[in-house]
Every structure is written in structure tokens, then in C-alpha cells.
Design brief:
Layout (H helix, E strand, L loop, with lengths): L2 H6 L1 H7 L4 H15 L23 E5 L5 E5 L5 E2 L4 H19 L29 H15 L3 H13 L7 H10 L1 H12 L7 H12 L2 E2 L1 H12 L14 H14 L5 H7 L4 E3 L4 E6 L3 E6 L10 H14 L19
Helix pairs in contact: 3-13, 4-5, 4-11, 5-8, 5-9, 6-10, 7-9, 8-9
The structure holds glutamic acid (GLU).
Glutamic acid (GLU) binds next to loops.
């Protein structure tokens, strides 16, 4: 059998025999080695604390629905989750109030604008989608209204449940975000004026800045991704974190809007729902199969990790992960009926 096809059946083999994750480790190591010399891209510097991160760190982690996590390189180094948090707060809101009420807060359309654009969808007077700042701040405001003064504590707990361990905030990054986040504050006021919430803007922004400043490792992100892949249940703890409908919608919006202005190219090259953050993380998810997390803080002009994108594309090729790769097994119920 050709090598590519045998790799494509690797994930299915791991489900029945967890010891075959060794082969996955070899593939991840090769991908890491292939791109480790690529030092293209620059650190995000619009938040002063982010510019202080050691630029050449590079880690890959793969989380499987059997609870195993395969790691290579700097996969245990903490970094701030930044915009990857947006996917998880969106899933939380969907779980709490369902898609119809959530649609009154934020849409599901790609915006075609940079992530920090100060504008709303003219048709709805609501943010285009939850993966841009307007949408994520609207979600933070709604969560603050629903969860009260403890909202951030509850969000942090939920992220910890998805990662399988308690997480914490990088206080310096949080302070740096708060001191320099004037565009985000402007967005907060725009949303307040549009009656998305009726709260003091600073209370909403505090949640948003804190959620961006949560520290994770690539290994944590891989487990968070595996939780989404595993129908919302954390495969390490066995606990339900998100409901099925929330996972489905969050992954759908990640697919169309998760990679800043590179979302279209990403959909063609990698073909997976994903979210990136300016801290250098990328999380991609394959339904029922795997959470792929890469940390490498040098970013391209779209704000996406350079080595993160290359690694995800190579892993997607080697493992046959692209959603529309006709050679994939897929997860369809119909398959069993053919
Ligand atoms: N804290 C960042 C901001 O809103 C998040 C940016 C990102 O990762 O896209 O400016």
C-alpha cells in the first residue's frame, strides 16, 4: 500500500490500539524538524508584552480522543491564548442561550475586514462573526450579563475543564492589553451604543482582555481541541464540557472565519476548522479524530504563526486530514451503510 494511504489509516488504527501513537510521534517529529529552521515572520508587537516573548520557540502537540497527547519541541511552554479564546467563549455562549439568541448578539458571516476593525454588519447592526474583535467583545459582554460579576472566573474554569487542568492569567500581558487596548475600548463603546449589552464598557473589556491573556501550552490546546473533536467531552477527564450543537456551530464558524484574512487560503490548503492567536498559537480540529496545536510566535502579515501554518498544512497532508480530501474516511454515519 502506498505510504500516504497507510498514514491515512493511522488515526483509525490509534483508536483501536493506543500504542500506535508512537508512529504519530515520529510523524510529528519529522514535521517539527522540517520547519524548525524557518525563522520567517515577526513577533506581534502592538501589545508591548508580546514583543518580549522568545521568538524562536516552536512546539507541536496532537490530542487524540483516546486521551493521549503527542508532543514535540516547546509543547509545554506557556503562552497567551489570545484570539483562540474566541472560539471557546462563543461555544460557551451557544451552550447557554442557543443559536437563535446568540444570533441576536453576533452573526456567522466572514467579515473580509482585519480582526480589529471597528464596524458592524450594516444589515444587522451586530458584529459579523465571533472570531473578530467586535464579535468576541460582544460575546464577552453577553457572558458578563448572563454570568454576573464572576463571569471571568467561570470562563477560566471552563477553559480549564477543556484543557484538563486549571489555567491562569498572565497578569503582565493582561495589564499590557488593558493599557494599550484603545481600539478594543472603541469597539466596546460601539457595541454599547448598538445595545448589544447595557454594561459599563470597562467591565466587558476586562473579561475580553483577561480571556486573551490566559496562559496555555500547545499540549493544553491540543487537549482543548481534542475536547471539541470528541463531541464536547474532554477525553482525559471524561467530563462533558460543551454540548454537541455548540461544538458544531463553533467549528463551522472557525472553518470560515478562524484564520484572520488568511481563512480562504487556509480552507483550501489545510481544510480544517481552526483558530489562531497573535500569541503564536494555532489550534485545528478534526471532528472525532484529533486536536492539532502548534505554538511558534513568529507571525505573517495576517497575524498567523508562520511555522504553525506550515506544520498544520504538512500534518493535514501526511495524515489526510483535509475535510474535502476524497481519500479520507470521514466520520459519516452513512459510511457504515455502504
Ligand atoms: N488581545 C488581542 C486583541 O484583541 C487578541 C488579538 C488576536 O490574537 O487576534 O488585540
Amino acid at each position: 500500500m502506498d505510504e500516504t494511504i497507510s498514514r491515512r489509516s493511522l488515526l483509525a488504527a490509534i483508536e483501536s490500539d493506543p500504542s500506535s501513537t508512537d508512529e504519530l510521534q515520529i510523524i510529528a517529529k519529522k514535521v517539527h524538524a522540517q520547519f524548525s529552521g524557518n525563522l520567517n515572520g515577526e513577533l506581534a508587537d502592538y501589545i508591548p508584552e508580546l514583543a518580549k516573548v522568545p521568538a524562536n520557540q516552536f512546539g507541536i502537540a496532537l490530542g487524540l480522543p483516546n486521551g493521549r497527547v503527542v508532543t514535540v519541541g516547546d509543547a509545554q511552554v506557556p503562552f497567551t491564548i489570545q484570539s483562540i479564546s474566541k472560539a471557546f467563549t462563543y461555544a460557551l455562549l451557544l451552550d447557554m442561550i442557543g443559536p437563535d439568541e446568540t444570533a441576536k448578539v453576533v452573526g456567522v458571516q466572514p467579515s473580509g475586514d482585519p480582526f480589529n476593525t471597528i464596524s458592524l454588519d450594516g444589515r444587522t447592526n451586530r458584529p459579523f462573526n465571533p472570531m473578530v474583535n467586535t464579535g468576541a467583545i460582544a460575546v464577552a459582554g453577553k457572558l458578563r450579563e448572563l454570568l454576573g460579576a464572576d463571569a471571568f472566573t467561570k470562563i477560566l474554569e471552563l477553559f480549564g475543564q477543556a484543557a484538563g487542568r486549571s489555567l491562569a492569567v498572565d497578569e503582565k500581558v493582561f495589564e499590557s492589553e488593558r493599557e494599550t487596548g484603545h481600539r478594543n475600548r472603541a469597539i466596546g463603546h460601539l457595541l454599547r451604543a448598538a445595545d448589544v449589552y447595557a454594561l459599563p464598557v470597562d467591565e466587558v473589556l476586562e473579561i475580553y482582555f483577561k480571556q486573551c491573556s490566559i496562559l496555555v501550552t500547545a499540549a493544553d490546546l491540543a487537549v482543548m481541541g481534542a475536547t471539541l473533536a470528541n463531541l464536547g467531552n474532554n477525553p482525559m477527564t471524561g467530563k462533558r464540557v460543551f454540548g454537541l450543537n455548540a461544538v458544531r456551530q463553533a467549528l463551522s464558524v472557525m472553518f470560515t472565519c478562524g484564520m484572520y484574512d488568511g481563512a480562504g487560503e487556509w480552507a483550501c490548503k489545510v481544510g480544517l476548522p481552526a483558530k489562531s492567536g497573535v500569541g503564536g498559537g494555532i489550534l485545528a480540529v478534526v471532528n472525532r479524530q484529533i486536536g492539532v496545536a502548534v505554538f511558534s510566535p513568529r507571525l505573517d502579515s495576517n497575524g498567523n504563526s508562520v511555522r504553525g501554518q506550515l506544520s498544520c498544512a504538512k500534518l493535514a497532508d501526511d495524515l489526510g486530514l483535509h475535510a474535502f480530501d476524497a481519500l479520507n474516511h470521514g466520520s459519516s454515519f452513512l459510511r457504515g451503510m455502504l
